[in-house]
Specification:
The chain is built from 12 helices and 12 strands. The chain has 331 residues and is α+β, with helices and mostly antiparallel strands. It folds into 2 domains: 284 residues, Bira Bifunctional Protein, Domain 2 (BirA Bifunctional Protein, domain 2); 33 residues, no CATH class. It binds zinc ion. The site of zinc ion has 8 residues, from strand 12.
Length: 331
């Protein structure tokens, strides 16, 4: 099973001794997250993991997104954009509830009548429980940028002769509140999805892993690529994670710096085999089930890596980094 997630390796357990060291450090100096907020790059909303962004932060995020998107410039790519909420039914079909139940952000809404509305208002006034008439809608927050694409492609009928390449960008939601800057509840992914024969999808992923290394060099970020697994939930999760690693279905681009205890996964390169295509019946032009893969990047994580390693003022970043992101406009 290869469901894609922009995440750490599952083995990011910090033992008690390390924890004590971290807490000592926290007493001495503000966390990186606090520094980023103090610098005005991220804006606190009162909810851990949910932040506003400054113009400087957004400019960097947009340039990173353009840099990733440039890979598709000379290729037959279809650009698709979806809002940050998606069909609940598609998520129910996808297996996401089985694998990542704690991360899913479901959208609920008031569904009552006049009388239950009055009851809700009274409960709010009194600070009581007010959710009796608030129920799930047809929407969930999009957890992974590429999920909305698969049913859309399936509904079109067989893929074109050379398969399909799609450019995706979306805000994504993972309900995992955290004090760590890189673990946001709402963040953006820019990614490419390839649908075609196994050889086409694997060649796509190989090409992206090489391109991602060049991209990191261009940003003067010390990235390395390593085999990885998604953080599958529950007792069966470890088996799924081990299987994903053994089959080399997922690789991640890891950059040290943001978190002193572990490198941060800023990108992932996923081969789903026929998981999504069998689920939603995405077929090659000859009628055989296609294979799919996706290569995507967490834009905030790359931005935070740049701010962490090159400083909070982009005007003072290394020339190679500024040239890669802004070209002649900054150099
Ligand atoms: Zn994906």
């Amino acid at each position: 099973m290869s469901v894609h997630s922009e995440d750490y390796l599952a083995n990011d357990v910090v033992d008690a001794e390390e924890r004590a060291d971290i807490e000592d450090d926290e007493i001495d100096s503000p966390t990186f997250l606090q520094q980023v907020i103090d610098a005005g790059l991220l804006i606190s909303t009162g909810v851990d993991g949910l932040y506003g962004r400054s113009a400087t932060f957004e400019d960097v995020v947009e340039r990173i997104s353009d840099l990733i998107g440039a890979w598709g410039a000379d290729k037959p790519v279809e650009v698709l954009r979806f809002p940050p909420a998606m069909s609940r039914q598609v998520i129910e079909e996808s297996g996401y509830w089985a694998n990542f139940p704690t991360q899913l952000g479901s959208v609920f809404s008031f569904c009552g009548d006049d009388r239950s509305h009055q009851r809700l208002l009274k409960a709010l006034d009194k600070g009581d429980e007010w959710t009796d008439d608030v129920h799930p809608t047809r929407l969930v927050m999009t957890p992974v940028a590429c999920y909305p694409v698969y049913p859309v492609m399936a509904a079109r009928g067989h893929l074109p002769k050379d398969g399909k390449l799609v450019d995706i960008f979306s805000y994504c939601c993972r309900h995992e509140p955290s004090k760590e800057a890189e673990r946001m509840i709402m963040f953006r992914q820019r990614e490419f999805v390839r649908m075609g024969t196994p050889a086409q999808v694997q060649a796509f992923r190989d090409d992206w892993m090489e391109h991602a290394k060049r991209m990191m060099r261009g940003l003067a970020l010390p990235g390395t690529i390593a085999s990885a697994n998604d953080p599958f939930f529950g007792r069966g999760g470890k088996i799924l994670a081990d299987s994903q690693r053994q089959q080399h279905l997922k690789f991640e681009m890891l950059v040290p710096g943001i978190n002193p205890n572990k490198p941060t996964a800023v990108g992932s390169f996923n081969y789903h085999r026929d998981r999504f295509s069998s689920l939603w019946q995405i077929c090659l032009d000859n009628g055989e089930i296609a294979h799919t893969g996706c290569c995507g990047f967490g834009l905030e994580r790359i931005a935070l890596s740049l701010f962490r390693l090159h400083g909070f003022n982009p005007a003072k970043w290394p020339a190679i980094t500024r040239n890669t992101l802004w070209g002649s406009r900054h150099v």
